[in-house]
Amino acid sequence: MVETPKTTKGFEMQKRQLGATGPVVSALGLGCMGMSNAYGPADRDESIATVRAALDAGVTLLDTGDFYGQGHNELLVAEAIRGRRDEVQLSVKFGGMRDADGAFIGFDTRPVAVANFLAYSLQRLDTDHVDIYRPARLDPSVPIEDTIGAIAEQVDKGRVRHIGLSEVGAETIRRAHAVHPIADLQIEYGLLERGVEREILQTTRELGISITAYGVLSRGLISSKPLTLDASDWRGHAPRFQGDNLTRNQDLVTKLNEIAEAKGVTVAQLAIAWVASRGEDVVPLVGTTKRARLEEAVGSADVTFTERELAEIEAVVPLGAAAGTRYAAEQMAMLDSER
């Protein structure tokens, strides 16, 4: 396996615009969820240092959610960017409700909830505006038009700059976009999860909406090292990380590692660069809590592919290659994007 990733020496981060009317952001975004112990314990100091290293490398798009660690993540991000707020675009998800044990207890995207959640996020993030604000999931009890209309009111007040969506399907995207221009759709997209290619990507491109892709490393499945999960890591309950599914998926990753080794990059860099190669309207979000992994991810930005290499990757991981669904059944039921 390749042990030394491509480095960022002499590197200049490229930019991409989110949608026809959205902000210009770095071609790679940093997902901050894992810094609030979503994948097992995370070191606070190292997490903050990682955010700051990302800014130094030219990463401007930071993704968080008000329910990540029940507000912990926003407070951590605020500390990490203190004095550098004008260098970043903050992408914030809202609507997820959790109890004191961290369990999800539903979603609330009513207009009154939009105003409430945003007020708390602005306070925790120590800012007067959020660059991109989006409901984390479709609330089945609230028309998407009502939710987007409420966010649009916050745009008029200057508290939100742009509106995004997360994990919704083509019909919902169209309904939302009819109320207010949507900058981007955040959705899982990577070598082992390509469901967006069935219908959603065609819809976003028709409407001039970008994709911010999370899960580009399939939550750690795509790695040059065997995956070990802490007892507190929620991935242990995800179908792709269990039994025969995990064996099948690790076999796919072994083949991807062979392609990456032949190319002289790490398999993580291969996976990130593949997502970025899908189009100028796609921005990969890389979730990491360590500076070394960030350096590796940023090094993917100058990785390009020949048609032969793309065909070789396609042969290994075609659409639908991964075994198991990406979430457990009850969580899959919450995804409008899967309907």
From TrEMBL:
**Protein known as:** Predicted oxidoreductase
Where does the secretion signal sit in this chain?
Answer: none
Q: Which InterPro entries match?
A: Aldo-Keto_reductase, NAD(P)_OxRdtase_dom_sf, NADP_OxRdtase_dom
According to its UniProt entry, this protein's organism is Lentzea albida
Q: Name one Pfam family in it.
A: Aldo_ket_red
Gene Ontology MF term list: oxidoreductase activity
The alphabetized UniProt keywords are: Oxidoreductase
A GO CC term assigned to this protein in UniProt? cytoplasm
All copies of domain NADP-dependent oxidoreductase, residue ranges: 28-316
* Keyword field contains Manganese: no
Query: Coiled-coil segments, which residues?
Result: none
Q: Where are the transmembrane segments?
A: none
